[in-house]
Records
---
Amino acid sequence: MKLITEVTGSGLPLLLDDIDTDRIIPARFLRCVTFDGLGEHAFEDDRQQDHTHPFDDPHYQGASVLIAGRNFGCGSSREHAPQALMRWGIEAIIGESFAEIFFGNCTTLGVPCVCASRSDLEKLAALAKAESEMPVTVDLANHQVRAGHLTVPVTILDSARAALTTGKWDFLGQLLEGAVAVRETAATLPYMTGFKA
Amino acid sequence: MTDRRNLFNKVWDLHTVRTLGSGQTQLFIGLHLIHEVTSPQAFSILRDRNLTVLFPERTLATVDHIVPTDIQLRPFADELAEQMMSAVEKNCRDFGVRLFDLKDSRQGVVHIVGPEQGLTQPGMTIACGDSHTSTHGAFGSIAFGIGTSQVADVLATQTLALSRPKVKRIEVTGKLRPGVFAKDVILHIIRKLGVQGGVGYAYEYAGEVFDRMSMEERMTVCNMSIEGGARCGYINPDQTTVDYVKGRPFAPQGADFDRAAAWWLSLASSPDAEFDDKITFNGSEIEPTVTWGINPAQSVGVKERLPALASFSNDDQKGISDAFAYMDLKEQQPIEGLKINVAFIGSCTNGRISDLREAAAIARGRKVAAGVKALVVPGSKLVSEQAVSEGLDKVFEAAGFEWRAAGCSMCLAMNPDKLKGREVCASSSNRNFKGRQGSPTGRTLLMSPAMVAAAAINGCVSDVRSML
């Protein structure tokens, strides 16, 4: 798999807290058997009710780095949420914090989610608003985000960083390599042998 | 020396296959539950990579999210739903996975079916492409929701790559007062710890209140762990757990059961077990609780007023104002008396027989208020059958509730049961997110099934304690 050590693109500010996955992709769009076409429905209901939503703002149409708030991606485990964001064009997310299942789903798709302080996020969001073309770089190797004159420290779970930067975010491939050990572990579990004496 | 590991760490260690290069654990999954919404793309991954299902007997499929709860004739009126149903049928056939389809008498909501069938057992690791998989933690298992790529991982390898979370013990002491239910306990915990309080943790629920709970009440509590940010929540197995599992179709039998029960009980956290964090609540202080906002932590006791905006930090005020505006509510107004348009009893949180009994006790001999649409949706066909045998369907229908077929129904918006426009719904489900119940502007008030029944009868949020 591709090594993901840094992602560069223009920023898209959406500095709101507790954005749940129902808002990222409303459930009616989960009536599908592929993830194709989800991108255009990202934040559909929020956008219908707010015509100034950043996902519709012409300034941000080429953006690929989402600047989010606290507990981003909470709620449902639907992978449709990161799939919709990714297919809309998002390649990395900077937030104050992330819900766990969402974070794992993003990592599996090669979309790094890094955490920054609230005040740094506000600065980044302000920069992206002032100069929507300005490149924002999420640098996993150096634990930082750079935009214009601004350099801010960010954190990411060590295991996710290791997986992304070494190109091992295709977990299925690695899990398959453990096939022999899987059968050995299974054989030690009492319920796998029907609790026979 | 006693084993001071808590149940979570014991079960995690037993299921650890190896450590991956990233530092994550390759964890064996004992039971995999799948449904029609989050599995089709996972089977596509298997086909694309020419893989098979490694342990097909460890996976069970059921259909719930898209199932209409009124007319279930095939093909469904909704072509997309029909396409998904055909996909799950074909995938299960092609890959040798057992499916409880609509023709099966055991069909129902995935988190109700697993325990009902005795598939959910203590000491197991359980995964499902659904965040409410935390429900199964009620048995003392490690159970959590996963994304679709991970559904493919489990199908192909029976394992997942995971980071070990920390464990937080939440003790609730004392005794619940009359009219206070398991739902109120978990809503209270989430209110106090917040919607992200559990991120990075598994919650262990312990103490007298949980010790006294039935398995169905424990499932209601564990179900909503994810609403507090904890991917997984559990209760240590005890005699209540053992008695519940005994005799169920997929439970071990005879001497095997006795060996199983001894093993299950041995996994419980010992009194001196170690935790990363602990907190204690007093159960006797918990009130019937109702959410007023757009996340499950935004709740108050039914006799309380909504919070004042100024009681929140500057950072939080923007979100709270947004919640007030969306719900069309004002700070410091009472919640009791708030008008509702719809009442929904059901879901993986509160769609079990004891939930229906509690709601029926309130509905019995009373009438749903004029203008309120009230639905009762059993969580499974077997729950429905039991309710009918007790005459609960007739109690509800006599009161003016609609009695429906098993499914996820109005908990989420993937089937014909949806709110319209700005409707306000008193709901026994688990999420009050914006648009959650199918109308992009619809409003949800979460509460216990008995409180939903009370709201349906009075046409407004009511204190069920005056109707017991």
---
Amino acid sequence: MSLLEIKNVSKIYGNLHALDNVSLNVDAGEWVAIMGPSGSGKSTMMNIIGCMDKPSRGEVLLDGKDISKESAKRLTEIRRDKIGLIFQQFHLVNYLTAVENVMVAQYYHSLPDEKEALEALERVGLADRAKHLPSQLSGGEQQRVCIARALINHPELILADEPTGNLDEANEGIVLELFRLLHREGTTLIVVTHDPEVADVAQRTIVLDHGKLSREIVNENFHD
Amino acid sequence: MFFRMIRGALFRQKGKMLMIAFTIALGASLATAMLNVMMDVGDKVNQELKTYGANITVVPKENSVLDELYEVDGEEIQSAYLREDELGKIKTIFWAFNIVDFSPFIDTTVTLDNGSEVKLTGTWFNHHLDLPTGETLNTGVTNLRNWWDIESGVWLDEQAAGGTQGVMVGTQLAKDAGISAGDTLTVSTRYGKKQLAVVGIYNAGGDEDDQLFSSLDIAQALSNTEGCLSSIEVSALTTPDNELARKAAKDPGSLSIAQYEQWYCTAYVSSICYQIQEVITGSIASPVRQVAESEGAIMDKTELLMILITILSLVGAALGISNLVTASVMERSNEIGLLKAIGAKDSSISGIVLTEIMSTAVIGGVAGYFLGYGFAQIIGQTVFGSAIEMKLMVIPIVAISIIVVTLAGSIPAIRMLLRLRPAEVLHGR
């Protein structure tokens, strides 16, 4: 069953077609990578799927409901309830500790629960770094805090934008291993990346080029 | 979580928050200083203005009517007098504490040794008075005419040994009659003759330079008017006149009961005059209009100046806060974009930013208040040579001003914050 359906979506900035009539289906529990060079429309696609932007044309159905015409306020609610976001630049609140950064997502979703937030950090192997500020954490650790924050509200969809773009090989391995774990647990993952190694571990890879869907590659060797 | 975020923002970004607190403290201190000075400046300027002489004259009612009818100097047709034994009552009126100084006068004409006739005014110089209230007071023209230039000798002092037998001579008369300090002057009237020691030569810069001033007793003895007074001059701290005071000055009977009470219980020059008339039998007390009006005008202008400085300082603080808060929000655009991305509503983020700023404003405001009180004391000591009284009314005014200024200063930042779109911030678009 499709969790996400993108139908003939275009995003136009003046004369520029950042996305040009793209259609895509993502099933619940699927792990999809979106690849493409710079300027191919990857980030635009992520913003539209992540309810941070609206398409100029076309429909975006999440859980069967069209969200392409929703108000900014409603999109904020959908983002909060259904989507977990992971960024290349981590984007942690620099004056809050690791556990507080996780609790912020709980706070805007429902009620903050420090115990649950600590468990999320434990899942990503950072229980002992919970009271540290982002400036006291390595890049890999910050990205893991970001993953814990994305997971804390049990979202239907995890959307990661270049999650390993700023990480060394060892930390990249840790993050991808966490994605495998999440996938095994049934979480739907959409990972935007330009790194073939990151794309290769997904079930399916969508390749964008100049705003159009140019190829779709199914990973025959996929295993969790 | 809200408070953890506020605490984190305040304590882990001390530099930024201290900067905002410092700006608010500066604005608050200026407002506090100016408001305290403004509220106290009335009394201070009033006190200063009292050094320029009396602002109320009291004369016998009968003479006043004759003056008005014939437009002549009352001295020439003096037929009624005020009573000396009632003088102390002036310090028993409702506004007794506003009576700074007063002095009685009795005028007569005396003949000098050389046969010339000159005016002699008997008055108090430094008179000790035991009031009916049990208080004591030293009052007289030494205070009321403190601009007199004593060219030689000293002020007459009736409390000094032999002081009551002295006389002060105007500079013009001294020059014309060849009188010097230390001389003995013989003055006579049809009621008697007195040998008076010239204790000082004064320069008053007016008609008084052609006459003599002696103690009250001497002049009364020479004019056979013991216990009688020609006039009383009073220096009182007054509130500038308004419409009510002007209406009352024309006819207190025209006021309603409420207006009458308000007028009577306000230190308008007209209400003080009215109260003096109530205690001095057969008297008419009238303001020296020129002095009273000048005092009112000076005070109005001084207060207006202070209000303008206060408003300008608050506007300056608002602009400073606005710049700092806007810069702070711009610096934190990534963080705000992130919070929006993970589901924070605009109202939640505005709430956090405003709470942070208002908490900082409270710290800055309290520090600014005490700093401002210090500034007010410096202004008080430098300008008036005395402390500025702490006015409780300033606290709520400064608190409300700081809240308004901080909110107004935060509006551009909040508007910018509401316009931020997470996609643009997080992807730098």
